[in-house]
Specification:
heterodimer, A: mainly alpha, two-stranded antiparallel sheet, 19 helices, B: mainly alpha, 2 strands, about 75% helix
Chain lengths: ~525, ~475
């Protein structure tokens, strides 16, 4: 019941927002906020109740153990059921979604003035779809949510977005986003169907269930396994995004409203990483192993490409978008290095990137509200014109470059440490990119905060609401940076299973509190 | 053969439609009253629908003379056709209300065309195939040109008449060639005779019949008439043309293919593959730049029949089920889309509200109508939660099942291109601009039968999209009967 509730609350809340608009403009905001608080609260409750420790898992096993499972019949004709389950990895992602959902609603409190009800309908439905992706264990259901969440995000960008700095309209950006991800999605569908049919021919049961399909790779020729793995990989690569497929991301991010950017960067990108971890690796372990060097090469390229392009941007949101490309390169590296350390680091890295990128997007949204520009050349000297905003921007920029004490540092450190054992050379090159991270972060701060101010007039400082949002994000980053152990404990079980099914090695259990 | 009442019982729905036609004619002769005449037609269609469902549940199947065969397959398509015809009828009523000229005869034409469509679905003989096709097409000429005060409507009617007649001529000649070689006209007989005789006449014959069928289904490269006719035809007639006439022709095509032994239809699969890919590419590419929503739907229907043909070209065990599912979801979606256009337009105006401009910012004026249109566009694009997704899912399933990777590639590319224009229509609905054109649907559209129908169809599209199990079970029953 709790798992269905996690998915249903945003959907029902969204509808109520739409209907509630006629009672007053403020009503949808409160309904949305309460819904996401409820989701976050349920997530925390699951954390408190469950025992996610590795000990709960049969050590070295490749069959996942779920903390909580729900199953309802749906389309028995096709072997499809509504199968939801949660483990440590899903739990972390759901919590991130809940938290960032609250932030997204909070940061659009004054930004969105037109059609408030419909806006929150779209926002909540996209969040509901994302939670569905994190909980679905039936491939059909997974695909269902995977595709469904695109529509609300499309509306968020197309209807409430801003015109791009280079004259591209928001509809252009939204359509590009939709077509990229949808075509990727259709490839995923082909992959899923082929996987199901292979399993059907070998075992005689038509099933879209994750557990049933986990063994399907045994019945495939290596070329077929590779082809299907590539179908999955491409779909996830488009959304992650990985460099040849990334061009929708800067446009979509730059043109989206703040809440949309938070949604995209903080949560949607994580669904792709989640998909790789949960599906691409365990379903096609051999092909993934074989493909790993190429994937890591792509990741490495993305790290540098994103960093260089971020450095060259003048639009602050595009700059942050390209840093996402760079960070997702790290994520890809971590996934395919497939070491227990890197996988654990990944969880922290995904959380950290979600929190940090959201914080930066929220700050750029606040700057835009006050200055009506996103162009860094028009800013300059803002340090003198605000009291609270500059130090917070400074903090998030520092987190972005991975300063010790923030969660980003822990994530990157664990990924690099783990990957060094597997692919030392790639890791050494990737490490050098941290310098570039420093360069673009500092350049951003320098252009925005320092230099000659355009005017000496003081600007409206952050309101209590804005300050609360940013401070809670910052607090979460610092907490994870100083004491990541609780999160690592929770994700250890799930990650060990993924690691075992991808690259079996002798079990060693570091990073687990006794 | 003993001709008893039981033999003809399965044809009862067709008989009821024919009787209703007469009844409507008499009703018009007695008193010209739009509401009353339309109601007679609707009652007749409903009785026929109920009878069909009853007979289908009773399992009354069998061949009725050598011309017609009634089986679960025919019942399934009869139900689809009758439901679509009913929907078109209610839409026509809403649409024709403000028409200045005689408005009642269109129901007559609609019933006749529906009877033709049912004959097509029942036929397993070339003669009934041809009779059904003509009985379907000829009234449609009249329907397309019904609002003849509009220049476009008349033009579309004439265009459809000329081109359709030449297609029929192709078909007749093809049948003659087939007869010349095989000496029989029944679908099954042709197959048997082909095994015993040699020659190329029948090959040419089949090719010519296929040309006629492709024309009726507006598949590339025989699609050129489609956008003009869709644009010119009054919106409810467009709905009829896009649903009833295409479903019936496709149903008979599939029956022809399954009654002919596989070795003779195998070469056709290559042709189907080429035509499918051409239709997908042409349909989607040409739709990209359209600003007229009816033309856009015309091109999109070309593409959709391309996807459908992929199932035929790929074949395999799931092909038949795929065709059923796809046609059903396509009919529902098209009815909804044309329904919204119909409710936005009236016959009294000089043209339909078919320019995209009319729909700008509709959401802020008519949220429910817009919600319906959004669902339809998403369904046409094949996005989950809508019936269109289930249809696309099945097409992909068939493609993967038979390993037709090249066809799948065409479907994926086509869907990618298609998204662009469906999204364009969809987002137009939501874009508010100051001083926008205030073309509104009738203020009471929601209380009228047409409004209820459209909302109902949207509900069905969502239901099939979210919980397809009952529909899939029903479709599984729709098996053709073999009489070998």
């Amino acid at each position: 019941m709790i798992l269905s509730a996690l998915i249903l609350i945003p959907f029902i809340g969204g509808l109520l927002c739409w209907l509630g608009e006629r009672l007053g403009v403020g009503i949808p905001r409160w309904i949305a906020l309460i819904s996401m608080l409820a989701v976050f609260g349920l997530g925390l409750m699951l954390w408190a109740q469950g025992d996610y420790s590795l000990a709960n898992q049969t050590i070295g096993s490749t069959t996942p153990r779920w903390q909580l499972e729900e199953r309802y019949t749906w389309i028995p004709h096709l072997g499809v059921s509504i199968h939801l389950a949660i483990d440590g990895l899903s739990l972390m992602m759901v919590l991130l979604t809940g938290l960032l959902g609250i932030m997204a609603i909070g940061c659009s409190w004054s930004e969105i003035q037109r059609h408030v009800g419909f806006f929150h309908l779209n926002l909540l439905w996209s969040l509901g779809g994302v939670i569905g992706v994190f909980l679905a264990l039936d491939m059909f259901l997974f695909f269902f949510f995977w595709e469904m969440m695109l529509v609300p995000v499309y509306f968020l960008i197309a209807l409430w977005g801003h015109a791009g700095s280079d004259g591209k309209s928001r509809i252009y950006a939204a359509t590009k986003f939709f077509i990229y991800t949808q075509v990727g999605g259709l490839l995923l569908l082909v992959g899923i169907l082929a996987l199901v049919l292979v399993n059907f021919q070998a075992t005689g049961t038509l099933s879209f269930d994750y557990a049933a399909l986990l063994g399907a790779h045994k019945y495939m020729r290596p070329e077929l396994e590779m082809a299907l793995m590539l179908c999955f990989f491409t779909a996830f690569a488009v959304k992650l995004p990985i460099v040849p497929f990334h061009s929708w991301l800067p446009d979509a991010h730059a043109q989206a409203p703040t809440a949309g950017s938070v949604d995209l960067a903080g949560i949607l990108l994580k669904t792709a990483a989640y998909g790789m971890l949960r599906f691409a690796l365990p379903l096609f372990p051999n092909a993934s192993q074989e493909f790993a060097p190429i994937a890591m090469g792509l990741g490495l390229f993305g790290i540098f490409y994103g960093a260089f392009l971020a450095f060259a941007q003048t639009d602050i949101k595009r700059l942050i978008a390209y840093t996402s490309v760079s960070h997702m390169g790290f994520v890809l590296l971590g996934i395919y290095a497939g070491n227990f350390l890197t996988l654990q680091g990944l969880v922290i890295q995904m959380l950290a990137h979600g929190l940090c990128a959201s914080g930066l997007f929220i700050i750029s949204g606040q700057l835009y509200e006050r200055l009506h520009t996103r162009d860094t050349r028009e800013m300059g000297g803002l340090w003198a014109r605000f009291t609270y905003l500059p130090p917070l921007l400074m903090f998030f920029a520092a987190a972005l470059l991975g300063i010790p004490g923030t969660a980003n540092f822990v994530g990157e450190f664990l990924i690099l440490l783990g990957a060094f054992k597997v692919v030392p050379i790639i890791t050494i090159i990737a490490t050098s990119s941290l310098v570039l991270g420093g360069v673009y972060s500092l350049v951003m701060i320098h252009r925005v905060l320092f230099g000659q101010p355009k005017s000496t007039e003081k600007l409206a400082d952050l309101s209590g609401r804005e300050l609360t949002i940013l401070l809670s994000l910052a607090a979460a980053l610092v907490f994870l940076g100083l004491y990541p152990q609780p999160v690592l404990n929770v994700s250890a079980g799930a990650m060990s299973v993924i690691q075992q099914s991808y690259a079996p090695v002798a079990v060693s259990v570091p990073l687990l509190a006794p | 053969m003993n001709l008893t009442f039981d033999t003809f019982l399965p044809l009862l729905p067709l008989g009821i439609i024919s009787l209703t036609t007469v009844a409507v004619m008499l009703a018009i002769a007695f008193v010209r009253n739009h509401w009353w005449n339309a109601t007679v037609a609707v009652i007749g269609l409903n009785i026929s629908l109920i009878t069909t469902v009853y007979l289908a549940i009773q399992g009354k199947t069998g061949a009725v003379t050598g011309l017609l065969i009634v089986d679960q397959y025919a019942y399934f398509y009869s139900i689809v056709i009758l439901v679509a015809a009913l929907a078109c009828c209610t839409l026509t009523h809403a649409f024709m209300e403000s028409y200045q000229n005689n408005k009642e005869e269109i129901y007559l034409l609609l019933l006749l065309a529906t009877a033709g469509a049912m004959v097509l679905v029942y036929s397993h003989h070339m003669a009934s195939f041809f009779i059904g096709l003509e009985l379907l097409s000829v009234p449609v000429y009249g329907m397309v040109a019904y609002t003849h005060e509009r220049g476009r409507s008349l033009e579309a009617g004439i265009k459809y008449l000329v081109l359709s007649a030449s297609a029929s001529a192709f078909m007749l000649f093809g049948m003659a060639l087939m007869y010349a070689q095989t000496g029989t006209l029944s679908f099954a007989g042709v197959g048997e005779q082909l095994a015993e005789t040699t020659g190329h006449l029948a090959t040419f014959g089949v090719a010519m019949i296929m040309i006629a069928v492709f024309f009726k289904l507006s598949l590339a490269p025989f699609h050129l008439w489609t956008p003009d006719v869709y644009q010119g035809a009054p919106a409810p007639v467009g709905a009829f043309l896009a649903t009833v006439s295409k479903v019936a022709v496709f149903a008979v095509l599939v029956r022809f293919l399954i009654e002919t032994p596989i070795q003779y239809t195998q070469p056709l699969q290559k042709i189907f593959a080429v035509v499918a890919v051409l239709s997908i590419i042409f349909g989607n590419l040409l739709a990209l730049t359209q600003t007229n929503i009816k033309r856009l739907l015309a091109y999109s229907s070309i593409a959709h029949f391309g996807y459908l043909l992929v199932a035929l070209a790929a074949g395999g065990g799931t092909a038949l089920e795929t065709i059923h599912v796809y046609l059903l979801t396509y009919v529902l979606t098209t009815l909804g889309a044309f329904g919204v256009i119909t409710l936005m337009s009236t016959a009294g105006d000089s043209e339909d509200a078919d320019s995209l401009q009319h729909y700008r910012g509709l959401f802020w004026r008519r949220p429910y109508l817009t919600a319906v249109m959004t669902v339809m566009m998403l369904s046409l694009a094949g996005i989950p939660l809508t019936a269109g997704f289930i249809g696309k899912f099945y097409v992909m399933l068939t493609g993967v099942n038979t390993g037709s990777w090249d066809l799948l590639a065409a479907v994926i590319i086509g869907s990618g291109i298609g998204l662009y224009y469906y999204l364009r229509v969809m987002v137009t609905l939501y874009m508010a601009t100051p001083g926008m054109q205030r073309h509104d649907a009738d203020a009471h559209w929601g209380e009228q039968a047409g409004g209820l129908m459209v909302v109902g169809v949207a509900g069905l599209v969502l239901l099939v999209g979210m919980y397809p199990q009952p529909v899939l079970e029903w479709i599984r029953l729709a098996k053709p009967l073999f009489l070998h």
